[in-house]
Amino acid sequence: MSNQVYFEDVQEGQEIPTLRQNCDSQRLVMWAAGSGDFYQIHYDKDFAQGNNLPDRIVHGALKHALLGRLLHEWVGDQGRVKRVACQYRGMDIVEEDVICHGRITKKSQHGGENIMELEVWTENPKGQKTTPGTGVVSLPSRKP
Amino acid sequence: MAEASIITDEMRAIIGKESDPVTVEVDKSAVRMFARAVGYTDLIYYDEQYAKSKGYRSLPVPMGFLGHPIFRPDMPSRPLYVMALKSPYERVLNGGSDIEYYEPICAGDVLTSTAKLVDLSERSGSMGPMLIVTGETTYKNQAGKVVAKFRGTLIQY
Fold first, then answer.
1. Mind listing the domains of chain B with CATH numbers?
2. Do A34 and B153 make contact, defined as CB atoms within 8 angstroms?
3. Which CATH number characterizes residue A133's domain?
4. Enclosing domain of residue A22
5. Which of these, A22, A21, A16, A8, lies nearest to A119 by C-alpha position?
6. Cα separation of B78 and B125, whole Å?
7. What is the pLDDT of residues A48-100, one digit of tens each?
8. Is pLDDT at A128 greater than 70 in this prediction?
9. Measured between alpha carbons, how far is B87 from B5 in angstroms, rounded to an integer?
């Protein structure tokens, strides 16, 4: 990956580039296999509707992982995604885009690391925040 | 809440009790499958030589991946503390996840996880009464070092 971001280049309050991922049924099946979560509400429409859901819903843990990817793609090769925490407040429905956002809340240095704390969240195509959370990453410094 | 609590002393007694250790394998194919499902294009999760050129021992795990417990058809797939809870509710939703890595985990690592129930609470929501189950799983690597923690909330209703 190119365009490495450095600790000195970013400010508190700054938003990071968004990540948009469509979550079609194939992706939900891939996630089921990759994660080992085979709960049928995520890939069996009849089963989901039988559980009072409008349709198959996106796995919460997939949205957590997408927030991780959002941060990974921002911090680049020399950064590290250390922590992601989020709450599954709203359901995201199959075939819809999940749009991931992040905003820097705190810059600090400790233990020789350049730490950034962020507010992260996902939105659905209607702009509703369905998965609020927080993230912690480390970034490289321009100083040797 | 006006209604009687469904949390019994028996359920509360499980809080804080550490589970038996579970062996978790982290292998290359599983890392690739997880990364692919999340839509990663960074070759660090797919090409071992490339990952090594970036300073990793092998493919590192993407955020969220904590290996797979060794599957056995004679063992439950849910954490034992959830199995032990005699909840009156049958339906489950995932309430939230919090994953923190203290050290990079890479393919080839064999982790040991222990899980415990950390909290039980009740709430009434749009779906009726709910039991909120908060658990924590700690992962140690083959050198005995704590490498990650997972905190998860399940909503039973």
1. 9-25+64-156 (3.10.129.10)
2. no
3. 3.10.129.10
4. 7-139
5. A16
6. 25
7. 999 889 999 999 999 999 999 999 999 999 999 999 999 999 999 999 999 99
8. yes
9. 11
Nearest CA to A10 out of A101, A102, A84, A99 is that of A102
CA distance A58 to chain B (A): 11
Q: What is the pLDDT of residues B96-144, one digit of tens each?
A: 999 999 999 999 999 999 999 999 999 988 778 999 999 999 999 999 9
What interface predicted TM-score (ipTM) does this complex get? 0.95
Q: A43 near A56, Cβ under 8 Å?
A: yes
- A26 HSE (CA, 13 A, CB side): 4
Q: Which of B36, B98, B104 sits opposite A34 (nearest CB)?
A: B36
Query: A85 at the B interface (CB within 8 A)?
Result: yes
In degrees and rounded to multiples of 5, residue B58 shows phi and psi of -160, -160
For the beta carbon of residue B142, count every other beta carbon within 10 angstroms: 11
Contact status of A18 with chain B (Cβ, < 8 Å): no
Q: Picking from A66-75, B8-17, B49-58, which range would have the lowest pLDDT averaged per residue?
A: B8-17
> CA dihedral defined by A138, A113, B31, B151, rounded to 10 degrees?
-80
Residue A33: inside a domain, yes or no?
Answer: yes
Whether the CB-CB separation of B157 and B130 falls below 8 Å is answered with yes
Query: Structure pTM?
Result: 0.94
Q: What is the DSSP string of B14-66?
A: TBTPPPPPEEEE--HHHHHHHHHHHT---GGGT-HHHHHHTT-SSPBPPTT--
